[in-house]
Amino acid sequence: MTVTASPPAVRPPVAASRTGAAAVAVALVLLVAVLAVVDITQGTSSVGPAEVWKAFLGRADSGDASVVVASRLPRMFAGLLVGVCLGAAGCALQAVSRNVLAAPDTLAVNAGAYLGLGVVTVTGASVPLLASSGVAFVGGLAAAAVVLGLSGLGTGTVRLVLAGSALALGLGSVTDGLLLLFPESTQGLYQWAQGSISQSGSDGVLQMAPVAVAGLVGLLLVARRVDALALGDEAAQGLGVPVRGTRVTVVVLTSLLSAAAVTLAGPIGFVGLCAPALVRPLGRRHRAFVRVRATMPLAGLVGAVLVLGSDVLLRAVVGAEDSVSVPTGVITSAVGAVFLVVMALRVRDTADSAAPDRLRIPSRAVFLVTVCLLVVVLVAVTIAGVLLGDSKLLLGDVANWAQGRAGQAVGFVLDTRVPRVLAALLAGAALALSGTLVQAVTRNPLADPGILGVSGGAALGAVALVTSVPLAGAWGIAGAAFGGAALAALVVFGLSARGGFRQNRLVLVGVGVSTGATALISLLVTLTDPFNATKALTWLSGSTYGRTMPDVVPLAVVLVVGIVVAVARRTELDLVSLDEDTPRLLGLRLSPGRLGFLAVSVLLSATAVAAAGTIGFVGLVAPHAARALVGRRHVRVVPVAMLLGASLVGVADMLGRTVIAPAQLGAGLMTAIVGTPYFIYLLFRSRR
Predict the structure, then answer these.
(1) Is CB count within 10 Å lower at the N or C end of the chain?
(2) Which CATH entry fits the domain spanning 421-649: 1.10.455.10, 3.40.50.720, 1.10.3470.10, 3.90.1150.10?
């Protein structure tokens, strides 16, 4: 057999490559300048381009000049600074980790910095801006260390995104809890947390500029070492490059840049992910952009284009008046979500993201003992949930209430508390069953309605109805939640179906859809009136506050349907969860079976979100724990997972109502605090 060698690739001449690279850099600088000028001319006041020009020449009225100097110029410079910091940080992180999805967002740096600043805000301490930046730096660096420790460097995109998303959710839940517990001291923090470059004066920009310059200069100084890491760890060590020290240095410097950006403008999402990805194709055209010391400044310019362009687009589309309440980060997060989905469809990473469950078949006695113990736990949780709260009751009070002989005070307490307890228990069971079905169909042990974006879509649909129709009833909210969940599931499962629901594609697309839904929810919350915004924020924390018996009915009906389907088709569920070939050999039509199970899963998740708000990690933790206890047969997994899910959410709801009574924390915040360490444990176990 004759093998014909392919002709060598023709590389562009070095001079031509440098000329083209210079032209690209100049074009980007001009684009940034144009966007900066346009951004200065936009605003709520009547100061237009002519007045801005007069202000630069020193001939404008004192009022016009003060608007330009005190508001618009600081806003423009803040956009430049934040964009450059995030773009350069993302480029350095992707280079040092050899991972195209590494960014301040996916490493939970922004979430850690946000939590640090939230803690400082709650304490009420008057902290200088530089000190606040230090707190944000420590929080962001700690979060990045945890994520990189779990995911490793260069070991796969899915693990990094999962670790970052899980930690960001846990840290964000803690911060949201602070917002709800201390509404007065944290007023306006939610809007700031979405990322806004609006400034009141230039002090913030002037104080953060030296921090950003120090971080950028440091990255440029280690750029040669980062380029050497692209050859591989062993080759870099052979060249005398300290591999571990270089990586630690880059993570510290990028955390410093992210902290400066977060301190100045809040967490502006996905700029650090999108900017390097937009620059990367230029390296195939111009050799000058292959090295980090050239691509990093270019990514900084692209980051500035993204931030300023988002701000200009927002003010042009929404209008100057409404754009004041809409953070710039909402737009960048929405764009980044789409970008992440596109990246997920292109990334080829076939490594498993978690260790498979061990094949073990416990005896029937073990299963029966486990179920009996969990039933006892569930009964105890139910009784404790009914008796405990801001008002403590006795079993005799409950008995009298059930017989209609309770006093007015006791009757009022139980009339409001019993529906909350039922909503928490049923929501936990529904989410556990939904997670069980999704994990079986996708054969992905890390699949979860929350991680896959289904819960986010349900939350978006429900929030859209709550903020637009405040008097909407339980069935209306449930219908809106199901519509949002169905749309999210259609996108996630539709894009992931090609190739057999591969773990990486499914999870990455789900994270992208969830991020997009969160951005749209933030947009709705910030645009609505304060009452509805507080109501939506409370509901998003997974609160059962204000639930009545009519709110519980749709969830109970759907849960019964889900149980019937899971039990009746338990054998088919076992076969689908095995592999692609076994069901076909036994004559099972795989696609319709998958579609049916996924439809039931979406319905369960949507009604649970409608009844109890957004509650994360239950659909992940409960099926995992159930399989560890009773094996992989779904006739055993389903009841055990539902009992575990109901108990977990019931305990979370009870603790949220009692620990800091009369103040309350949503069950979703509590389950995220519990579920995040468990999820991290799963990733750590699979890493070993």
Answers:
(1) N
(2) 1.10.3470.10
- The counts of H helices and E strands in the chain are 31, 0
- In terms of pTM, does the model score above 0.90? no
Q: How many residues does the chain have?
A: 688
pLDDT digits (tens, 9 = 90+) for 299-312: 999 999 999 888 88
**Ranges of H-type helices in 152-202:** 157-181, 189-193
Distance from C-alpha of 186 to C-alpha of 179, rounded to nearest angstrom:
6
Q: Which of helix, strand or coil describes residue 344?
A: helix
DSSP code, position 326: S
- State the span(s) of the chain assigned CATH 1.10.3470.10: 421-649
Does residue 417 carry a pLDDT above 70? Answer: yes
Rounded Cα gap, residues 596 and 441, in angstroms: 10
pLDDT digits (tens, 9 = 90+) for 114-131: 788 778 777 766 667 667
Amino acid at 14: V
**Top-ranked range on mean pLDDT: pick from 215-219, 249-253, 484-488, 574-578:** 215-219
Over residues 619-667, the pLDDT tens digits come to 888 888 888 888 888 888 999 999 999 999 998 888 888 876 666 777 7
DSSP 69: I
Would you tell me how many other CB atoms lie within 10 Å of the CB of residue 22? 12
Contacting residues for 575 by C-beta, under 8 A, at least 6 apart: 582, 583, 586, 588
Hey, what's the torsion of the CAs at 552, 658, 670, 611, to 10 degrees?
10
Query: Cβ atoms within 10 A of the Cβ of 658, count?
Result: 17
| 662: preceding bond cis by omega (within 30 degrees) | yes
CA dihedral angle for residue 527, residue 531, residue 532, residue 533, rounded to 10 degrees: 50
Helix, strand, coil % (nearest 5) of the chain? 75, 0, 25
Question: How far apart are alpha carbons 284 and 409 in whole angstroms?
Answer: 74
